[in-house]
């Protein structure tokens, strides 16, 4: 029995060290003060988006919480103001699944706000279905809505430079693919007939984030705007909500030791938004607050340009 107990303690110690060194990962080291700066964070009513908004507000930024749900957005607004003590935090409704909503948001923002220094395209979802405009939900929200939003706000970002655009992607982009024939035919990245198909389409949408960033950086050359894509890490979520008691306990253990919480998961986003001296890495992909190489398909010039031009047509910019 003593031997078994020792083994259990040893395994727990190893798991703790793994979590503390590997899972928690690096932290944003920038001490940047953001007084007088304005930031937009999409999908900031929960998770890493909310954690990101809190940190930006603590540093003195004027922070716009851009969220689809008015109820959840206003609840997040109260939380962020309470935690940070800042009155420079606002909620503005934005539904990335509606091109009309994206245009309305940009129009309102440009009329009411004089600056934009940081745009964090954080919102994302894993969901089947169609957007208001008939696009596949994950393509429409994870990529196309952010593509349109960024382009509509680009002139303001240039005026306020040096400024930054941060696109939250995922390591899932490594197995993504962009099927242009399917996009042209079905306005979607694939035709989902199974959970596996839907998961593949999510990965495809995350590849779109990385390709968008790659092409955007080329188009921003000569300006004072830089852009970055990133993997935030495996984030703890409410995985155990519908599980039985034994499974809930198991998932709690896995979550505690092998997943980041929202604050830890926001660190690479903050690094890309704030870290001094990374301007020459515009267009690159980051993970664990470190620039990473990507597979050839995630930095292919022809594919990135083709996706940009198709996105322009689909979003009504062309």
TrEMBL record:
The protein's matches in Pfam families, at most eight in alphabetical order, are given as: adh_short
Keyword Oxidoreductase attributed: yes
Q: Which GO terms describe its molecular function?
A: oxidoreductase activity
Q: What keyword terms does UniProt attach to this protein?
A: Oxidoreductase, Signal
The UniProt record lists the keyword Signal: yes
Highest rank taxon of the organism: Eukaryota
Record's InterPro entries?
NAD(P)-bd_dom_sf, SDR_fam
- Signal peptide coordinates: 1-17
Q: What family does the entry list?
A: Belongs to the short-chain dehydrogenases/reductases (SDR) family.
- What is this protein called in UniProt? Dehydrogenase/reductase (SDR family) member 13b.1
Which lineage is the organism of this entry classified under, starting from the top rank? Eukaryota, Metazoa, Chordata, Craniata, Vertebrata
């Amino acid at each position: 029995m003593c031997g078994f107990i020792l083994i259990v303690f040893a395994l727990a110690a190893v798991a703790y060290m793994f979590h503390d060194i590997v899972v928690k990962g690096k932290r944003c080291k920038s001490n940047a003060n953001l007084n007088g700066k304005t930031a937009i964070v999409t999908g900031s009513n929960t998770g890493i988006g909310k954690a990101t908004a809190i940190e930006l507000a603590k540093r003195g930024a004027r922070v716009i919480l851009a969220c689809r749900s008015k109820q959840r957005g206003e609840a997040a607004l109260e939380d962020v103001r309470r935690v940070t003590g800042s009155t420079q935090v606002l909620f503005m409704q934005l539904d990335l699944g509606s091109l009309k909503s994206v245009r309305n948001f940009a129009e309102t923002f440009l009329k009411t706000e004089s600056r934009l220094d940081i745009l964090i395209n954080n919102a994302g979802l894993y969901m089947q279905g169609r957007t208001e405009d008939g696009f596949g939900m994950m393509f429409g929200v994870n990529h196309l809505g952010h593509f349109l939003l960024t382009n509509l706000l680009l002139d303001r970002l240039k005026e306020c430079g040096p400024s930054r655009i941060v696109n939250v992607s995922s390591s899932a982009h490594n197995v993504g693919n962009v099927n242009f024939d399917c996009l042209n035919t079905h306005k979607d990245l694939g035709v989902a007939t199974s959970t596996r198909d839907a998961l593949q389409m999510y990965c495809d949408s995350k590849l779109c984030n990385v390709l968008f960033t790659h092409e955007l950086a080329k188009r921003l050359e000569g300006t004072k705007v830089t852009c970055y894509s990133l993997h935030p890490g495996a984030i703890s979520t409410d995985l155990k909500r519908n599980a039985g008691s034994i499974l809930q306990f198991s998932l709690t253990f896995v979550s505690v030791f092998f997943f980041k919480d929202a604050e830890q998961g926001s660190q690479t986003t903050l690094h890309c938004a704030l870290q001094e001296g990374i301007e020459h890495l515009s267009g690159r992909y980051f993970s664990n607050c470190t620039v990473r190489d990507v597979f050839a398909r995630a930095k292919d010039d022809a594919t990135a340009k083709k996706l940009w031009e198709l996105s322009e047509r689909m979003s009504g910019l062309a």
